[in-house]
Amino acid sequence: MAEAAVNFAIETLGPLLVEEIRLWGGVRKEVQSIKSELESLRSFLKEADARAAVEELEGGGEESVRIWVKQLRDEAYRIEDVIDEYTLMVAKLPHGSGLVSVLHRISRSIKKLKLRRGVATEIQDIKSTLADIKRRGESYGFRSIDEPSSSGTRNVIPHDSRVGSFFVEDDEVVGIESIKDKLIDLMGNGRSERSVVAVVGEGGLGKTTLAGKLFNNDGLKTHFSSQAWVTVGKEYNKNDLLRTVIKEFHSFSGQPTPVQTHDMEEKELINALRDHLKDKTYMVVFDDVWKIDFWGDAEDALLDNKQSSRIIVTTRHMNVAKFCKTSSPVHVHELETLHPNEAWKLFCRKAFGPSPGGSCPSELRELSQDILAKCGGLPLAIVAVGGLLSTKNRVVSEWKKLFDRLGSMLGSDPHLKDCNRVLSEGYYDLPHHLKSCLLYFGLFPESCKINCARLIRLWIAEGFVQYSKRPTSEQVAEEYLNELVDRSLVQVSERDISGRARICQVHDLMHEIIIRKTEEFGFGRVLNGEDLSRCSKTRRITMQRSIDDEALSIANFKLMKVLMRDSCSPRSTTRISARSTSPRPGGLLVMLLLQMSLHKQISQSTPVKVLDLEDAPVDYLPEGVGNLFNLHYLSVKNTKVKIIPKSIGNLLGLETLDLKNTLVRELPVEIRNLKRLRYLMVYQYNYTAGFAAAKLHEGFGSLTNLQKLCIIEADSEALKELMKLRQLR
């Protein structure tokens, strides 16, 4: 995550340096200096993040690298905050003409001087801290990303939790018997040319177990004259991979590995392997493949001798399977989670032992089903959690305690260590730009089904997606989402008629891991009645329950970038006015918004980028919302809001304004100031009356970046304005 934070800080500084009017004198020089320092540190972060991951997953040690990474991440956040505060203060400096303008210019000069000194002092302090971090980082011997690794396995986490999966007994396997029989038939019959069977699915589904059952099947052993099993992993050296394949084939035949292979280069290794396979019907399993173009490193060595040879690839990445199709026939089998009946059978076997004593006591049945639901049909999770429960007394209170603490236990309990490792590996393998996107799922409650269009707009508002015209930022963000899906980290719950993802979610246990990381990194927190003072360094907050005025008054919102309401929970039927300060169900967001409007120091120092009040019990949007100058995303969807204040015209950076299913029927003329607005949705719909459109005043044709506009009253004047909106899609 440090790599993601540092890259984001660099990307924030870049445009600022280009815009001459936004930086003054010495400030520009200091910003350039910090950017250079960050770019220098960035070259070591890939290895630092990987070593921090090993410290976390292996446990023990002093965790010195994790501390170093955290400190660097915090400084990157601090840089982002300083730039946001600087931008915010510049935006508030007065403009105008005449006598008032002269007085304002005098005042502005004084403010500029104070601002310049303040920012310069802050940046000097950051530079000093970064220099210290860099010195300590050098003592850890981090390699630059430009330096090759001698082993070729720099990012591999040492322990291989798949070894046990290879030796799972038949009575421990549930739900793959029919799949196994189908694939055995596919591999033993059919086409004579070499072909690939790709087993794809998220971590913990049993891909290695299934491949092991195929590899050890007696019928297939007699069918194939030579076999090899190779665990690939995240990073590998191509020559070492080829040597391992040669070694495995010779081992299967009971022959020693030729000594000369140790000194062979790539071309010689390929020829040696092809020569060994030229008259054989062979099967090779490449387990745990992460690199998308892996097949390009292996296919030349695996001779297609037209003897019905088969290659099995297990992977979390659908794109790995797709890449194989470029040169070979490929059968893709997407492994699914266990059917509820099969999941229950496996759970009872692990938690209560084999029959006849393996039945669930009636008093534990409901709680057991709740625990099983948390496992989401993942065999690895069911086996791990069931094994942990088998060590506990069969007492409701003890099992309830475990259920409540299951998320936190993932990272600490030895029974769950492999489960935690397998699920965490998917996060650690992500490129930096996708890590923040995945962590965003932690701002939504467990099992929440998320609208993909909303998620994409939130990512863009946050700056996670680089601005682009061709392809558009939205298309880039959709590619990000599709990659998370292809990596088996995000599940698509619903697609539209064209096949595009419409609703998505993450697995419950993956959500637990994401939550741990969002809190550890200060990325965000979902509050369910906790004390807000605990969130002083939290950058994103989702509210689920109201909090009293005292807790609200001591909260520090200076670092907050995002404020959301949990719109996945059942809607509250209690309506609360933003003018009220009494704590009622769901009323916290309203009270917070009220404070932002009443307390100038909050509204003018809080660099909020996202204010998402969807489904909140709000009937009024205060004028003070116009003081949130950094706001990029504002939603009051599914609320009772009737009027949008004129101050909305101050939000010059606003990109999304979502007023769907509100009572807004007319937008203020100031809306035309929002030149960066890309999405404007304003209407109400019900089954009897249909759509109720809203009125836009003359001049909205100046919103030339608008890509989506719905639904407005269209008279002849409105049609003229619409003709000016060339970006509408």
UniProtKB/TrEMBL annotation:
Residues 443-514 form the Disease resistance protein winged helix domain. Keywords: Nucleotide-binding, Plant defense, Repeat. Residues 179-352 form the NB-ARC domain. Residues 601-729 form the Disease resistance R13L4/SHOC-2-like LRR domain. One of its GO terms (biological process) is defense response to other organism. InterPro entries: Apaf_helical, Disease_R_plants, LRR_dom_sf, LRR_R13L4/SHOC2-like, NB-ARC, P-loop_NTPase, RX-like_CC, Rx_N. Residues 5-94 form the Disease resistance N-terminal domain. PANTHER family: DISEASE RESISTANCE PROTEIN RP, DISEASE RESISTANCE PROTEIN RPM1. This is AAA+ ATPase domain-containing protein.
